[in-house]
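I can't quite decide. Please look over this sequence plus structure tokens:

:::
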Amino acid sequence: MNTVAKIMNIERLIARKKGAFKVVTLAENISEVVHQRLFRIEDGKDLETNEVWAGDITYLPVDNKFLYLSVVMDLRRRKILGWSLDETLSSKGVIKALGVAVEKEGQAGKIFHSDQGSQYKSLAFRKFLNDHGIQGSMSRKGNCYDNAFVETFFKTLKSELLWNQSFESEEHLRSEIFNYIECWYNRKRIHTSLDNRSPLEYELGIKAA
């Protein structure tokens, strides 16, 4: 018996077990039609600003539950244009993230690329695309490489912000996500693919050219 267990036994303390994380999903109206894969990462095409936006969702554990982070990235600048942190895996999160991106840019991207997740196949999300004149594009089923830029962003966020760190509360996590995306990733984090510039520096270089 280890030292902590001995002390707990003497003090008659019982460890409180954490409840299992539960993924919170909502029933939605889904289209079975898969958008054509308009963005092909393997083509290595030089993109224009706002030509292709890409999105995805990842889950973040906090307070014995999950929050779900939806993001929208402009693939030319690698800039996170919009994001939403929500308590359920519904289409509301991805719609909100895309809405923020449209508002910030003052226009919609020509193409929105995603995986074949139900949130992106929902009728509500597809209506948003249609209403804003955005063409939908989807990865091949089960092929994360097709959306590698956003997948890489999530990997970077988790390794730089979440790894080996705990959060005091949901509010603490939300604050840290805001600071990471808006103050660090977009403004200061260097990308080799952007000629060793941050998304903001790269963007300013485009405008100055």
User: Anything to note?
Assistant: The domain at 33-208 is CATH 3.30.420.10 (Nucleotidyltransferase; domain 5). The chain has one domain: 33-208. Helices lie at 3-10, 91-105, 118-121, 123-131, 148-162, 170-185, 199-208.
